[in-house]
Structures are given as C-alpha cells and as structure tokens.
Specification:
Blueprint (H helix, E strand, L loop, with lengths): L1 E5 L8 H14 L4 E5 L5 H5 L11 H6 L4 H4 L1 E4 L2 E4 L6 H6 L9 H12 L4 E5 L6 H9 L2 E6 L5 H18 L5 E7 L7 H15 L11 E2 L8 H5 L7 H4 L4 H15 L7 H5 L1
Parallel strand pairs: 1-5, 1-6, 2-4, 2-5, 6-7, 7-8
Antiparallel strand pairs: 3-4
Helix pairs in contact: 1-12, 6-7
Bound molecules: adenosine-5'-triphosphate and magnesium ion (MG).
C-alpha cells in the first residue's frame, strides 16, 4: 500500500483539489483507494459530496479512539472510500497535546486497517498547518507529495516544509520520503511560473543525498488553472465526473499516470516492518 500525504502548510495551493482528483483518478484506473480527510475544514469530504451529520463517524472518532478507519470510511464511487472530517477534528489538536504517542495514532489505525483490507493507495489531505494532524500524516506516510503554486515566495515555504519532513524522518518515520512536487494553479506561458519552476528543479537537483527529498521530482504534469476544477466541488464531484474532457481532468489524468508509473519504486514501511 502506498500511503501518500498531500501536504503544504501554505493555504490554498491545491492540496484538496489534488488529493480528491488523484484519489478519484487512481480509483478509475482500478486501484483500491482510501482518501482520509485530515482537515477540519472538511473540504475533501464536501468535494466528494459527503457532509457528515449527527452520529456519522469521522476522522475525529479515529483520533479519539472511538472508531476504526474501517468503521469510518464511506464508499463514494467504485474503488473509492473516504474517511470524512468535520470541524470536530479541530479539537484533536488540543485533545492530543498531552497524549503519549500522539504522533502515531493514525499510523496505528492504518496498520490495523491494512491487516484486513488491502488498499492500493491511502491518500491523506492535510490541513494548511504543521500541527499534530499533519505530523500524524507524515508519521503514517510512505511518501509525501507537495502541491506548490509557482509564485515568488513558494520556495521559502518549501524549505520549512522540507525541514519538517526531515525532522519526522529522524524521530518518527525513518522511511519517509518526498516523492515529488506537483505544480498547481499553473499559469502557462508566464515568465514567473517558468522561473519558479526552474528554481525549484535546480533546488531539488542540489539536494543532500541523505535528505527525505533526495529523489523528489517535479511531476511533468502541471495542473493548469482551470475553472472546472474550482466548480466541481460545489457539485460534490471529482473533475472526472464533472467535466471529463476539460484541461483540469487531462492534467490530473496525466498526474495519475505518473503516480502509477512510480509504483515499482515504492514499498510500504508497514510491509517492510512485517
Ligand atoms: N488548478 C486549479 N484551477 C482553478 N482553481 C483551482 C485549481 N486548483 C485549486 N483551485 C481552487 O483554488 C482554491 C484552493 O484550492 P484547494 O482547496 O485545493 O487548496 P488547499 O491547498 O487544499 O487549500 P487549504 O490550504 O485551505 O486546505 C479552491 O477554491 C479550488 O477549487
Ligand atoms: Mg485543503
């Protein structure tokens, strides 16, 4: 199982759009996928038409220890399950502050689910922060994919984010690696986007071979700015269901192909540990 954290502490860079459409695209390719919404904003859940009400179990119940992932996930399309989130999840940050092993709650939950249910992919949509939810995602992950909007300050934020992956690798997850950066909200033909992309490639090319991002690549598929991607969530649909031939659907289909092509290189630490 590939366990992928979609992470960037900067807000509005395309994490949720990428998590949802990658998960949906992989499911359409026959992969069994579980998307875990780790953002109290619940945008990934809403994007796929889930608005948990009443006693419907959510990611919060998993962190509280009341429910397992298997009891929480919902089937939303063929091969695609979602563990939804609501604002309740914001309390997790506080409730876990003093808990021993607070960083490994999700990893343990995933391990338990993997014992009985073989998913091909588990994708985690992280919130725009480096708090305990994101640390849980990094501790559970086999790899990190970073959505990045190419603008002037993007690389500064990236260094902080990469330092966090290095810290988590040292302390909590020795197998963690950054597999790639996906350029989102890409403005084709602009000088700025091209310059930032060149800087990013140069920066990754000079990485310390011991760093978690030593083998990180910039995905060839760039996700262009496309209004259909912004419209799809209000219909509770992935871009593939909402507008299957729009540029956004083509870009995410290309990304999914690249991710599947990388399957041979990945191996789950859960499997390695077994
Ligand atoms: N390629 C794109 N073209 C057009 N709109 C996009 C694109 N990618 C994302 N958006 C829109 O930009 C906004 C931010 O995207 P998204 O929610 O995916 O970012 P995020 O990183 O998850 O944000 P947050 O940090 O708040 O979780 C959303 O309204 C989304 O619909
Ligand atoms: Mg989001």
């Amino acid at each position: 199982m590939r366990i992928i954290a979609i992470m960037n502490q900067k807000g509005g860079v395309g994490k949720t759009t990428s998590s949802v459409n990658m998960a949906a695209g992989l499911a359409m390719q026959g992969k069994k996928v579980c998307l875990v919404d780790l953002d109290p904003q619940g945008h990934a859940s809403l994007h796929l038409g889930i608005e948990p009400m009443g006693n419907v179990p959510t990611a919060y119940d998993v962190f509280s220890g009341f429910k397992t992932l298997a009891e929480t996930r919902q089937l939303v399309a063929k091969n695609l399950w979602v563990v939804p989130a609501t604002l309740d999840l914001a309390a997790t940050e506080l409730e876990l502050v003093d808990a021993e092993n607070r960083e490994i709650v999700l990893r343990e939950a995933i391990k338990k689910m993997a014992e009985t249910e073989p998913f091909d992919y588990l994708i985690m949509d992280c919130p725009p922060s480096l708090g305990v939810l994101t640390v849980n995602a990094l501790t559970a992950a086999t790899e990190v994919i970073i959505p990045l909007q190419p603008h002037f300050f993007a690389l500064q934020g990236l260094s902080k984010l990469l330092e966090t992956t290095a810290l988590v690798r040292r302390r909590l997850n020795r197998n963690l690696k950054v597999s790639g950066v996906v350029l989102c909200l890409y403005e084709t033909g602009t000088r700025l986007a091209a310059d930032v992309t060149d800087d990013l490639c140069a920066f990754l090319g000079e990485s310390d071979p011991e760093a978690p991002w030593a083998d990180a690549k910039v995905f060839q598929s760039r996700i262009r700015r496309n209004i259909k991607l912004a419209e799809a969530p209000s219909y509770g649909q992935s871009v593939f269901d909402y507008s299957s031939s729009c540029p956004g659907a083509k870009d995410y289909a290309g990304l999914v192909e690249e991710i599947i092509a990388g399957e041979q290189a990945e191996e789950s630490p859960l499997q390695q540990a077994a």
